[in-house]
Structure formats: C-alpha cells, structure tokens
Amino acid sequence: MVKDQFGMVGLLTFIRAAETDPNLVSLALGQDLTALGLNLNSPDNLYPTFGGPWADTPCRPQDIDFHVPPEYLVNASIREKLPPIRLNRYKDDLLFYLFYTNPGDVLQIAAATELYNREWRYHMEEKVWITQAPGMQVQEKTSTYERGTYYYFDPQNWRRVAKEFHLDYSKLEGRPHLPPSLVPMPPTGSI
Amino acid sequence: RDFDDLGYVEKTDYLLREWVSLIHSPNGIREPTKAFGTFVQHLNVQGFLKTDDVITRFFRISTRLCVDMCCQALTEQSNSPTVVRTKCYTTLDAYVKLIALLVKHSGDTANSGTKINLLNKVLGIVAGVLLHDQDAHTIEFQQLPYQRMFIMLFLELNAPEPILETINFQVLTAFCHTLHILSPSKAPGFSYAWLEIVSHRVFLGRMLALTPQQKGWGMYSQLLMDLFKFLAPFLRNAELAKPVTLLYKGTLRLLLVLLHDFPEFLCDYHYGFCDVIPPNCIQMRNLILSAFPRNMRLPDPFTPNLKVDMLPEIAHAPRVLTNFSSMIQPPAFKKDLDSYLKARAPVTFLSELRGNLQISQEPGMAYNIPLMNALVLYVGTQAINYIRSKSHTPNMTTIAHSAHMDIFQNLAVDLDTEGRYLFLNAIANQLRYPNSHTHYFSCTLLYLFAEANSEAIQEQITRVLLERLIVNRPHPWGLLITFIELIKNPTYKFWLHEFVHCAPEIEKLFESVARSCM
Amino acid sequence: PLQKEHQRQFQKLEAAYYHMPLPSDSEKLRSYLARNPCPAPPYYPQV
Fold it and tell me: What is the Cα–Cα distance from A111 to A98, expressed in whole angstroms?
C-alpha cells in the first residue's frame, strides 16, 4: 500500500487524529452545514435576509432598512415629545409582539417580565404563554401540578385559545431575569 | 505632512463638526440636500474645494479625524459599548453622507465621469489611510471606522435614485476595486470587516442579482478568490487557530448562501476557485462543486440501474469562465502538448511531462497545481471534442487508446504519490452536475482504475473519491455516481483490493458509504 | 510551515479577532429600539 500521506493510510491517520483533536475535525470531516442558521430548504432567496458571516439567525424584519423619502424620517423632530417606553402601559397584544419579534434582545426579556407580572406563565416545554381563563375553576390542584382550562397564546394565528392543560409547575418558567450588566431600556423612544 | 498645518487641521475639524451637527438636525434629516447646499457654500468660501489637491487634502484629513475620533471613543472605558458605538456611527454616517452628496451633485448629470472620479478618489484615500493605520497600529487597529465608511457609503450610493442608477455599475466597480486593494492578504487586520462587507445582503444583491447580464459576477469572483488565497496557507496547515476558524466559518456561511441563491455563479467560476482552495479543504471545495443550475433536475444517483450514458445532459458542455488553456505555460510546452494531441508523437513528450509539472523540491510545493489543473481540463476537453469529431460519444470504449488517454495514463503511472494525488484531484474537480465534463472525467477515472498497472494507482483513486465522500454534505452528483459505479460494477473488483480492508475504520467507512449508496 | 509573510498576516488577523465587527456596524443608526443583544433562554423563540 501507499505508505505516505497520499494513500489510504494517510487518510486513516488523519481521521484517527481528528478523533482526538477537534481543530482537525473541521477540515477532515467538515461540519454540519445545516447547523449554521441558514434555512437551506427555503424556496426563497436567502441573501435578502442574510445576517452576515457570523450571524446565527437571519435578519429580523426591523433590521432591514428600506429607502424612504427623507420627509418620512420624523423621529428627530418628535422624539423629545414622545412619552418614554413603559411596557406596563401596553396591551398584552403588543407585549406578545415584542416578545416574538425580538429574539435574543433585551426587549424580549422585558416583554416576558411584564407578561409574567400580568400572570402569564411561559411553559418551557410547550413553548407557549399560558394564563388562567377567567371564570374557569381549576379542576385539580396539588403541590406539584394543577389541571383545568387555560388560555394559551397562539402566535401563528395571533389569538388566545382555550385549552385544557395538565400544568406541571416545574415546567413553568419563573420570573424572567435581565442580566444586571445590560443597559436598561432607553428612556425615550417611539414606535 | 497634512497634520503639520495645525491651523488647516483645526479648520477641517471645525467644519466637520458643523456638518455632523447640521445633517443630524431635524431640518438636516428632512432636507439633506438643502443642508448640503448650505454647507458646500461654506466649504467654497473657506477654499476647501478650490483645486483637486485641496479637495484630496480635505478628504485625507477628514478621514483621519473621523478614524481618530472613533478609535479614541472605542478605547474609552467610561461609557457603555452601545453609547460608544452610537457616537462613532453618528460621526461616520455624517461624513459618509457628505461624501455621497458630493458624489451625487458633482459635475453634471450628462457626464458621470466627475462623480466616479471623485468616488474613486475618496475610496482610495480611505484605503490608503487604512493601510497606513494597520501597519502603524497592528494590535490597536480598529476595523470599525473603515467598515462603517465603506458599507454606509455603499448603501448611500445604491439608493434607488435616478442619478445613482445611471452610474451604478461604475460605483460597483469602484468598490470592488477598493476591496481588492484591501483584500485580506493586503489588509489582514481588516479581514473580518472585509468579509462583512462582501457578504452584506445589499452588496450581494447588487453584484449578483440586480446588475444586468451578470456583469458583476466576474468582479465578485475575484473577491472570493482573494479570500480563498488568504485562507489557503492557514487551511493547508489543517490545524486551525481560532481567528482562522472564525474567518473560515464565515466563508462557509457565505458560500452556502451563494450555493442556495446563485448556484450558476459557483458553476461558472468553479475552476478558478478550485485552483486556489487547498486540496485538504474538502468540504469547502465540495460546496462549490455541488452547485448546479437551478433549472436542472438531477437524477437521483442512487437510482438502481441508472444509465448515466443515456442522460441528455451529458451532451452539453458546462460554462467555464476561466481561460484555462492560456494557463498552460510556457508557450513551448503548450505547443508540444498540442502537437502530441494531434499526432500522438513524439513519445518523449510523455516522459518529459512530469518535469513540466514539478517546480521545486520543497515539501508541499513540489508541483505547479494550477498548471496541473489546466492541463487536465484542457486535455479532457480536447478529448471530448476529438471523440465528437468522429461522431462518437465519450464512453469507456471511445475514451481509450488516444493521445489524450496516453497523457492521463502516463501521469497516473509516472508521477510520485504526491503528484498523482494532485493529478487525481484535478480530475475529481470536474465531477459535478450532469454535463459532458462530468461524464468524461468520471469515465476517465474509472478507466484509470480498471487499467492501472499497480495497486497504488487504484488505492489513490479510491482515496481521492473517499475523502470527498466522508466529509459532511453536500456532495457533488458526479462524485456520487462515479463512486457508486466503482463499488457496484464487478468489472472493477473493488472489494477484492487489500486497501479496502486495511483497517477496521476503513472497512467500516466503505461499508457505511456503500450502504448509503445502495 | 507558514512563511514569514503569512505569520505576519496571522498576527494582524489575530489582533482583529479581538475587535470583531458587530451586527449594528453595518446597519443604519436606529434612534429608537436599537439592538440590545441579551442571552435568552433556549426555550424562548430564537428566530
């Protein structure tokens, strides 16, 4: 057999070395390219929402600029007159909007916190927000779970849906926490 | 020298601050052209637009002032990163707006030359400041100000305005030229920012989608080659340091977007890319070779009894937008090659062939890989033309006993293991989507296997195919059908070879690949 | 082995590695609701 690096033994040696050296894997065996945050099965082009070479997700809609007539850019003239952002003033609908359209952003956590304050709870397995349905009694309640009819928020159809749940308390997220190092929400702004 | 005249520098600084304030004011945002008009008058009165030299000096100092302001802000610890960056963006965006407005409104509408000249001047100045800065401050060099200037200026000059649409191609050319000057090999400290710009969705759209007749494709391919050339020495080392891994991963992401959205681009320029990608970067190369035209439906390579010879696509040659024939140098060698292909003589040509491909004794650099690739593709395409001229189609019979196959068989036998590996790689680089090149080179590889006079040749053919198959997807169609044919067709007695069973891992690998193939 | 020129290039690349671009560097300045990245729990929507 070929005894140097250019035959089967050479390939085998490299593969064996890659088993213990993760730096070699990326070239020896390559990476799972489906895990780079790009929807390679998308029927639409990817480039219009491509977040960049190191983005794990595509651009969010709010990240994509669009040329508008300069007259539309009124923020500079009115921003001092706008009230500050206060999530506790807004309806649930807007909070859900902020939660679902700002993944990985302080706004998502802030919206989650306000929803929690309003007795919504995030089910970590079902991945939905749940709250008690008004007027509906809990059918069963123990120290670890309860059962009854609740509302969950369906983000696909954008509405609350009544459903029976068996709610294991350990599956409900506690109060969300913002890392203390992060800058709080700007005091002024507009939507 | 610019900064020796402190009075001039102070004046420039003052004017810039005035502009920043003006353009970010409510009136400036609402009516930027009006604000610009006022400011240009000011510049004129102060003599800053008097002559070409004066204008150049103004931009050089302004660029320097903006960069210095950013660098100072970035090194301050007192403010939060968001506040610091916002401060940088405010100044940089204002400066960019000034440049964009000057470009748009310089000269007259009928003559775009003045505008483009000014743009080229400014881009050149920014590039010059960058290169100087990078050399002067290796560790502290900041990419941000330059990245922001380039990308924001690009976005400004690609706004949907009639004036800009008429000069759009020249604008793209100017940016590509500048990015080529600032390629990672020349400005490694700017590499990440460079890749951000080249991958930007608006840049991609303009270069590859919106510019008619694919006029941006050639320039974009040059930028990708610049990137691959920079990465090559580090990737050849196989063990990747973190900075290189990050740049490599970013490159893979970009290639995935290109594969998904612009596969025809990768198809057309695959040859040049494979020339500069190191042989051990198998997945990256596979990504490029897996591309196929979007209007094509590839037959499933795992279809039982797939008759590749009967596919209509194999009659058509793919586009190869590199003049590979001209890469066969020196001219005397090309002349001898053509003579041999025509007359199958003199036989000495074959014995001298190896010498033409070897360039040094240095390990890893013994062979002229671009020449090897060009030779293989040239001989193969000449072979296809020759067979067709006889009203035949290339198959295992018609490719044999020809000057072309003489050359291939000679290379397989005469080269050492390294040379043979590179030679077989050159053939495998043509195993792509169904077309005449894929078909011819697939037959050639199988023919070389069948007619090999030593097991080493068969082993190396197997090695070249296998290493391209064991990496994660994607895999080129031509690679799959060649390997399937090799392991399925009893003619090749594949499973009887010692190298198939040389180690448990290798056996398992073959069995695993064979299982997925069959 | 890396040639001297490539070693010099690597040094500059490595220095740049510690000043990586941020997504906002290529985006228009947002005067309101600017990006404020924050690690979110994995069970929250990620896209």
Answer: 6
Side-chain half-sphere CA neighbours of B206 within 13 A: 25
Query: Which residues of chain A make contact with B280, given a CB cutoff of 8 A?
Result: 27
The reply to whether residue A109 touches residue C27, judged by beta carbons under 8 angstroms, is no
Residue B423 corresponds to which tokens in the numbers above? 């030679």
Beta carbons of B291 and B298 less than 8 angstroms apart = no
What gap in Å lies between CA B165 and CA B445, rounded to an integer? 50
Phi then psi dihedrals of residue A88, to 5 deg: -70, -5
Q: Indicate yes or no: CB of C41 within 8 angstroms of CB of A105.
A: no
Using only C-alpha atoms, chain B has a radius of gyration, in whole angstroms, of 28
Quote the distance between the C-alpha of residue A94 and its chain's center: 16
Nearest by CB: C13 against B188, B196, B237? B188
Looking at residue A131, the DSSP 8-state letter turns out to be: E
On whether the CB atoms of residues B438 and B477 are closer than 8 A, the answer is yes
Q: What are the φ/ψ torsions at residue A20 (nearest 5 degrees)?
A: -110, -15
Alpha-carbon distances of B184 from A37, B126, B239, B287, C7, rounded to whole Å: 25, 16, 20, 22, 13
Q: Are A50 and B204 in contact (CB under 8 A)?
A: yes
Looking at the complex, report in whole angstroms how far the Cα of residue C18 sits from the nearest Cα belonging to chain A: 14
**Who contacts B35 (Cβ-Cβ below 8 Å, separation ≥6)?**
B22, B23, B25, B27, B28
DSSP-derived letter for residue B210 is I
In a mutational test of the A interface, the residue from B201, B369, B464 whose CB has the highest number of chain A CBs within 10 Å is: B201
**Residue matched to tokens 């290109």:** B258
DSSP calls for B490-512: GGG-GGGSGGGGSSHHHHHHHHH
Pick out chain A residues at pLDDT < 70. 25, 181-191
- The mean per-residue pLDDT over the stretch B207-236 comes to 96
CA–centroid distance for B98 within its chain: 33
B239-260 pLDDT, tens digit each: 789 999 999 999 999 999 999 9
Please give the ipTM for the structure prediction.
0.93
Look at residue A183 in the predicted model and tell me its pLDDT. 45
Nearest residue of A to residue B161, measured between CA atoms: A67
Q: Do B233 and C3 touch (CB under 8 A)?
A: yes
Q: Does A82 touch chain B (CB under 8 A)?
A: no
Q: B292-301 contacts: CB < 8 A, separation 24 or more? A: B292/B263, B292/B267, B292/B432, B292/B433, B292/B477, B293/B263, B293/B264, B293/B267, B293/B433, B294/B263, B294/B264, B296/B433, B296/B434, B298/B433, B298/B434, B298/B477, B299/B434, B301/B477, B301/B480, B301/B481, B301/B484, B301/B517
Mean per-residue pLDDT for B70-84? 84
Peptide bond into B330 cis (omega under 30): yes
C-alpha count within 13 angstroms, C-beta hemisphere, residue B271: 22
Nearest by Cα to A8 from B411, B419, B410, B421: B421
The whole-angstrom separation of Cα B367 and Cα B378 is 18
pTM: 0.92
* Contacting residues of B for C21, CB less than 8 Å apart: 143-144, 147, 192-193, 196
Nearest neighbour of B201 by CB, restricted to A31, A50, A54 = A50
Q: Pick from B256, B424, B512 the residue to mutate for testing the A interface (most A CBs within 10 Å).
A: B256
pLDDT at A189 (0 to 100): 33
Q: Count other C-beta atoms under 10 Å from residue B392's C-beta.
A: 12
- Dihedral over alpha carbons A23, A27, A29, A34 (to 10 degrees): 100
Predicted pLDDT of residue C32: 74
Model confidence over B120-162: pLDDT tens digits?
Answer: 999 999 999 999 999 998 888 999 999 999 999 999 999 999 9
CA atoms of A30 and A36, how far apart (whole Å): 13
Residues constituting chain B: 518
Structure tokens at B464: 């070249």
